[in-house]
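Intended use. Records like the one below are meant for learning the mapping from a protein sequence to its folded structure. Do not use them to infer anything beyond what is encoded.
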Amino acid sequence: MTRETIIKKQPEYFQLRSPETENGFGYSFAVKIGNHIKASGAVSMNEAGNPTAVGDFTQQMKNCYADIKKMLAHYGCTFDDVIVENIYTTDMPAFLENLEYRKSLYKENRYPKSTWLGVKTLAMPELLIEIEVEVIQPE
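Structure written out for the chain above:
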């Protein structure tokens, strides 16, 4: 696919939560152009945009991946279609302790290009991890 082909395609916006929540924060969970999907950082929050699993790193991580899985399913994709994964966390040791869960989502040791960053804080102080992905949708 050439750059010109990508530019001519209209973006498709995907909202995971209510429009009031995502529009209130000023984002879409994912944007698809052609067969390329870029997702915003998934965090552990409910439909109203409030943090969930406060203080529980493992559950927050699972909630992030559950939201990503919903977006992937919407587009007929799986974790095997993820090509980039960026993880931001306020607790890198906790992330590394939960690495096996992350690895279990990617089959046959086909992992995406990944960057893991330790950060001081995320959008809300209760959030411990944020995960963003890029996906190539199968044709």
